[in-house]
Amino acid sequence: MAIPISYNLRNVTQRPWSTLATTLGIALVVAILVGAFALASGFQAALVETGSPENLIVLRTGADSEISSGISRDAANILRALPEVQVGADGRPLASAEMVVLINQPRLGQGGSSNVTVRGIDAEGLKLRNQVKVVEGRMFTPGTDEVIVARRMARRFASCGIGDKLRFGQRDFAVVGHFTAGGSGFDSEVWGDNAVLMPALNREGAFQSVTLRMRDTTRFAALEKQLEADPRLGVQVRTERGWYSEQSALMATIIRVGGVFITLIMAVGAIFGAMNTMFAAVKQRTREIAVLLTLGFTPTAITLSFLVESVLIAMIGGVAGCLIALPINGITTSTTNWSSFSEVAFAFRVTPVGMAVGLVFAAALGLVGGFLPALRAGRQSLAASLRAA
Amino acid sequence: MNLFSLVLVNLGRNKLRTTLTLMSVVVALFLFCALRGVLDTLAASIKVGSEARLVTRNAISLIFPLPLSYRERLLAIPGVKSVSYANWFGGRDPVDPGNFYAQFACDAETYMPIYDADVEIIAADSSAVPLPVPAGIDPKLAMFMSERDACIVGQSLFKRMKWKLGQKVPVSGTIFPGTWTFTIRAVYHAKDPAFGEESMLFHWKYLSEKGMGGQGIVGWYVLQLGDPGRAGEVTRTVDALYANSGAATHTETERAFQAGFVSMYGNVPFLIGVIGIAVVFAILLVAANTMMMATRERTAEFGVMKTLGFADATLFRLVLIEAGIITFGGGTLGALLAKFAIEGSRFNAGGFLPPMTISWTTVAIGIGVAVLMGATSGIIPALQASRLRIVDALRRVE
Amino acid sequence: MGLVTVREVHKEYRRDTQAVPVLAGLSLDIDEGDFVALMGPSGSGKTTLLNLIGGIDQPTSGEVSVHGEAIGRLAPRQLARWRSRNIGYIFQLYNLIPVLTAIQNVELPLLLVKMKGKERLERAKHALDIVGLGDRLKHFPRQLSGGQEQRVAIARAIVSDPTLLLADEPTGDLDRKSGEEILSLLERLNREFRKTIIMVTHDPHAAERAHRVLHLDKGVLSN
User: Fold this and answer.
1) In terms of domains, do A69 and A39 share one?
2) Which helix (H) or strand (E) is A99 found in, with range?
3) Pick from B92, B172, B266: CB nearest A334
4) Region of poorest pLDDT, from A44-48, A126-130, A359-363, C32-36
5) Residue B56 to residues B215, B216, B251: CA-CA distances in angstroms?
6) For residue B395, what pLDDT is reported?
């Protein structure tokens, strides 16, 4: 017969101070774990959501980022003319051959500078990206040196306000609008007209990528094979989603691994702390344990009871940790995506999965930390502890 | 028997608890120093950048190139002793795409002499016939210099990849498409570990022939100054020279250039700092909890000591010193462990950081923080012990 | 045949490397319905004897039987079950669980038996009524006086209706008046409810309440 859980609950609530210390320790560990996962999730979400499921992106074979890719004008024209490409209401194919470069811009508020992505888009460029909306000011006028800046980036870099002039390539570009892009990778970019940007930056020879909207997404695999085999083109083809997912994989993994690593080390410390508390609890309740044994509860029941208590304390810490981590949800931060060498602004994303991992982790901490003390409680010699009373 | 030995006896009373608390502090301090070590390492990587060398890149950003034709004019600027140039190759390992290492194409004749003081050639293939070597270059590099597709690799990288001298290494080009093969002809060792030994260098001429159709496109220029004091002057001269040309330049000391890379980490150092603080808090909690548990158990004992004549202040000091010893001991162990284990293993996060350094300052700060936390956590229990009334202590506590 | 039979029981403890003999070949019989007091100087082994009869400890040699069952041969699991069904233990220091209320403390032994929650509550209440604390069900031990705590302990000891009540210095920690009340309660349990009681005490006044007094000295009975 098991010892009722209310016994454990009571003990936990009646010894608030020592419980609190252990709980807080575990809460901190869980908070950091959840935070690291939130950082990684936010980063990944920012990039993965960049893609539309109907869009294809074409880059040069072997390129591992848009900036190291090059597609000739001829190739771009061939791609635009493909029958698989959807045609817009105005009869023009929904395709955008784009220039993607990095400009080094000083940060606002923080010292130093960082690389910002500048994308020169075609007339169809905006139509291809449903999630992009100009929220302040207006869209740039094609054929002029006007640009729009993602709102998230505008807050972090100098000269990005509406009416400001962004200077690069020895020219001034007027910022006429801010846009949002649904939390995707485009939320870290500056957009302008291809036709103006490419000559300005001496990049008339080739585009970096061509994005196409497919008529029929089931044709993707066949089209990929066809294009990649075409010697005139020398390209690799990806779904837009798949491409941005790849671009985020490395960094997200680094963040997660780093977070888990740090958390594991902290966990070792937390386990020692939990062990300490539980050993003390067992010692303090020597007589109680003796009574329970006298009454006829088995040593196994006692061991289980203390284990349950340890897990209970740890879970309270786990919940507290999730609550501590919760407020960071939505806070934006930025760092350089080493895969693309450019700055990516993203928001922390505390996910249910992240929190679940945190809770399971807390339970595990409670189990491991409470194991030896619980064992000791159960192994307590009945006669010896009554004599010691 | 003095106060100190009394403290030691008390700590030995419940060895399990003392050990567990000590271990918690060790772990916490280890982590604290390791995290600060990341920041130390980034700072050290900046310091490796010389103030007597300038880096000139395209003003727009590093991904825009500069023409080779700039070289003559740069060399002619007063204060500039020599000029070299390099390009980022950015290739991938065709066998293991997840394996990352840096490849550069450089003008070896001018590049190697500039970095002569920073590296040492520790292994090199030599040819049967003695080959001539340009002035200022280590004779061991003779074979490297004479072969178009030869390369030099850093010792760390060489060991990690288990390469051999003379081995042909394939690299998939990303910016310069195709599969490129380089023959390892020498291995370099960095005199300052923060310099890094994870790179591969090959000949710029080869890149130009095979990848640029013979064109002269340079990633960045390195200018060796005759007099480091003239850095500011030369910087201004270079940038003014090309301010209105097709490819305007941005010049800075190599140190500033390195710092720019570090600043690209953005908020990450801040986040690491936050975690460090959380860790410190955790130590505080653990130590405080332990002290309070121990004090509670010894209530009767303290009462007896007071009847014997021990002063309140003495008991206060006793408890405080106990807290301090555990945290000092644990803190020192954890900090030293971090320094020697992490530095000793040359941990470099899989090639993402240069080999980690943990400065003695960080170790000292770590120990200081631990002791401070110990003292803080010990104050309340110490006060409790000192304020205990004998009557209360000796009454049987249920 | 008596309820409790002790035959040639030896018990020694180990302190570090030394063997300390406590019981040296003791034998006795206790009948059902008996009220026995065990007296003797400190260290004479009276608590040890009580523990052996209660299945809390095992003899080094010899046999202890309750109801004809040789409890020395039971495995620890079985012994635990046997204890829950047959023994009610009353300690000197009450040993109530501080985080549980009076009624919850009394309910505790019943958790080891298959019983519905309602029935359990009824029986616990009944036990508390018998000991005269029917109005203190929801109180915590710290809210009760020493005498009241001991009475809760007694209620706990009788709630599963055990054959045997073992009391180790039940009045040792109480004042005169409370002690008298406890002893009267024990007498009543023996007289009205036919409980067999073995009580260890060093107080001759308490021993007077018993039917029989046994003296232990140096590990053997001395009368």
Assistant:
1) no
2) strand A95-106
3) B266
4) A44-48
5) 19, 16, 4
6) 58
**Residue B397: band (very low, low, confident or very high) from pLDDT cuts 50, 70, 90:** very low
Q: Which two tokens stand for residue B103?
A: 């490849």
pLDDT of residue A207: 94
Q: Which domain holds residue C217?
A: 4-221
What pLDDT, on the 0 to 100 scale, is given for residue B255?
92
Chain A contact for C180 (CB, 8 A cutoff): no
Residue type, B186: A
d(CA B143, CA B127) in angstroms, rounded, equals 6
| Number of structural domains in chain A | 2
Is A139 a member of any domain? yes
**Average model confidence (pLDDT) for chain A?**
88
Of residues A238 and B313, more confidently modeled: A238
Same domain, A260 and A144: no
Does residue A22 belong to any structural domain of this protein? yes
CA pair distance B367, B29, nearest whole angstrom: 8
CA angle B46-B47-B51, nearest 5°? 105
Instruction: Note the pLDDT tens digit of each residue in B198-210.
Output: 899 999 999 999 9
The predicted pLDDT at position A286 comes to 86
> CA C162, CA C87: separation in Å to the nearest integer?
5
Integer Cα distance of A316 and B59 in angstroms = 55
Which residue has tokens 């608590």? Answer: C47
pLDDT the model gives residue B349: 67
Percent of chain C clearing pLDDT 70 (strictly above): 99
pTM of the predicted structure, to 2 decimals = 0.78
Read off the amino acid at residue A277.
Answer: T
Contact B79, B230 (CB under 8 A): yes
Is B219:B65 a contact under the CB 8 Å cutoff?
yes
Q: Which structure tokens are listed for A287? A: 């007589």
- B96 pLDDT above the threshold of 90: no
Crossing angle, helix A299-325 and helix A286-295, to 10 degrees? 130
Residues of B in contact with A112 (CB under 8 A): 259-260, 263-264
Assess contact for A282 and A306: CB atoms under 8 A. yes
What is the mean pLDDT of the segment spanning C35-53? Answer: 86
Q: Contact A251/A339 with Cβ under 8 angstroms?
A: yes
A346 and A271 in a single domain? The answer is yes
Tokens, residue B110: 């001018």
Answer yes or no: do A258 and A380 share one domain. Answer: yes
The per-residue pLDDT of chain B, averaged, comes to 86
Q: Are residues A182 and A306 in the same domain?
A: no
Best residue of C112, C113, C169, C200 to probe chain A, by most A CBs closer than 10 Å: C112
Res A389 pLDDT > 50:
no
The CA distance from A295 to A382, in Å, is: 11
At residue C62, the 3 state secondary structure works out as strand
Q: Are A130 and A52 in contact (CB under 8 A)?
A: yes
- Assess whether A25 and A82 both reside in one domain: no
Q: How far apart are CA B200 and CA C62, in angstroms?
A: 84
Q: Are residues A255 and A367 located together in one domain of the fold?
A: yes
Does one domain contain both A375 and A256?
yes
Q: Which value does ipTM take for this structure? A: 0.80
Mean pLDDT calculated for residue range C101-110: 87
Structural domain including A141 reads 55-213
Whether A62 and B172 lie within 8 Å, measured CB to CB: yes
CATH code of C12's domain: 3.40.50.300
**Chain A positions in Cβ-Cβ contact with residue B266 (cut-off 8 Å):** 110, 114, 333-336, 343
Closest chain A residue to C93, measured at CA: A389
- Per-residue confidence (pLDDT) for residue B308, from 0 to 100: 67
Q: Is residue A231 part of a domain?
A: no
- With bands split at pLDDT 50, 70 and 90, how would you rate the model's confidence at B283? confident
Report yes or no: A335 at the B interface, CB cutoff 8 Å: yes
Q: What is the DSSP letter of C59?
A: -
Spans of all domains in chain B: 3-46+266-394, 60-247
Of the residues A162, A193, A213, the one at which a domain ends: A213
DSSP designation for C3: S
